């Protein structure tokens, strides 16, 4: 069949199987595991051959993986950039090879938006705002000392969740973020940083954790310090993965802002559209909600992840 113009062999809208190279961040959290499962299952379902790599949260490994997909002349490359910066060179190499790139989950800060076809993922600033709005409602005008467990330094979710949260609290002087540090989106990172926060700050009222896993680590540290999570120290997190929702239902977390990892089906749809030569929106925002303790009890039985 004639070259589909995507510059790659096969797959380009013809009847051969589409080959996708996916460079995943790592396996750092329950969210990431669920995201990987969604992508692998959706590829299977869509009849797309998936080449998959886990970068252990290292940008150089993701860049290596993308280069190997270019060498293998895959039909499409998709990835979740572990941090926002440093992608232009390798994305230009993919563009020169005629291989379309789809961003999922996290964003890049490239000025040249022609380097990728679309960015499918949550609005992290909105997630930070939702967390802030709950805090304002929950604490009102009470003087409130907040500690923040940031996600991976330089990642879009960490930057944006911090920005949205601060934007909402900026209007009220009774809220003070007394400490803020990265726990790298891991349970162990959240636990270690929370231990230090507890040693340095006698009266913490609230933990804002950029994901459930760091919130779960903070719960371990709070309990080890003889305090009651969800009561002595309240906790608000983002993700709404099963373990987080269980802690919310158990009253150890007070509120969770959902960030859906189930991007697989949309990613495969977009891929087929792009390779058929049709256009897609440059930005596709995922649908997501929030959960109170009561809502978590109701939702838990039917949660997919
Ligand atoms: C957000 C995603 C974040 C999750 C974390 O879309 O990039 O990375 O919130 C995960 O749990 O590690």
UniProtKB/TrEMBL annotation:
<dbReference type="Pfam" id="PF13407">
    <property type="entry name" value="Peripla_BP_4"/>
</dbReference>
<dbReference type="InterPro" id="IPR025997">
    <property type="entry name" value="SBP_2_dom"/>
</dbReference>
<feature type="domain" description="Periplasmic binding protein">
    <location>
        <begin position="26"/>
        <end position="277"/>
    </location>
</feature>
<keyword id="KW-0732">Signal</keyword>
<comment type="similarity">
    <text>Belongs to the bacterial solute-binding protein 2 family.</text>
</comment>
<protein>
    <submittedName>
        <fullName>ABC transporter substrate-binding protein</fullName>
    </submittedName>
</protein>
<dbReference type="InterPro" id="IPR028082">
    <property type="entry name" value="Peripla_BP_I"/>
</dbReference>
